[in-house]
Amino acid sequence: MTQRLPLLNQLLNGPEERAPSAQGCVWLVGAGPGDPELLTLKALRLIGEADVVVYDRLVSEEILALIPPTTLALDVGKTPGFHGMTQQQISQLLIDLARSGRQVVRLKGGDPFIFGRGGEEMQQLQTAGVPCHIVPGITAAIGCAAACGIPLTHRDYAQSVRFITGHGKAGRPQLTGAGWQDASQTLVFYMGLTWGAELSSQLRQHGRAADTPVAIVERGTRRDQRVLIASLATLEETLHREQPQSPALIIVGEVVSLYRAEAEPRMESMAVRN
Ligand code: SAH
Hints:
By secondary structure, the chain is an alpha/beta fold. Helix content is about 30%, strand content about 20%. S-adenosyl-L-homocysteine (SAH) binds next to helix 6 and strand 10.
């Protein structure tokens, strides 16, 4: 990134600035949960055609490797110098790049509109009058469930599924609203690792059975995916013992009882499997 800063400056201000008539735009693109083969064809095409790719921490190495070497790739998640960029600064960068006539791909883990702040970026781009298009991606819940063989709905076990952030605006999760005790609803918590104990206790207070099965899917769809099975009663102890790392998802509900470690589906291509 540091060596790429001059290139960024050049793109934004430099002599090679495109004719003002050139219309830049931003594509908010979902990169899926990590397995590069779960990218959409559209995402793959746009990554290949973009002038600039602005990505964050959840986008996997294998997907980043698909960015052509001549394309400017900016990490707004963790690169020194860009660490701690606020949402406002990221949006402003996207606006500036588009206004300089560039085709910008804003690459986000999973789906841009599921807990990805894609909605905020879209609003800011729209307010600035910058054309913005959305490309959906496979969200972590869908990808992780498929990768470990836990159907999120099932005629015999779950009639609905709910995606929840395990990280409230002030940190601590707040399970407000109704229906938490409903045994026929699967719950999927994003960003819930640090608050596992809190989530478990709030769900039990809402009346969800303590023996409800729980799966923790760490680095789902990636080569080093790990699945831990617990119950609401043992979730805290399991998290403490196994120390799963982010990104990880917590799936709560009877469908988790369908998980079979010995028959975990594989995400490799068929050619590799033969
Ligand atoms: N927009 C993303 C979610 C961003 S919030 C999406 O649609 O998937 C970040 C959270 O997503 C992480 O804390 C984790 O809970 C979850 N997550 C993302 N990728 C994951 C993966 N490969 N395995 C498990 N959880 C993942």
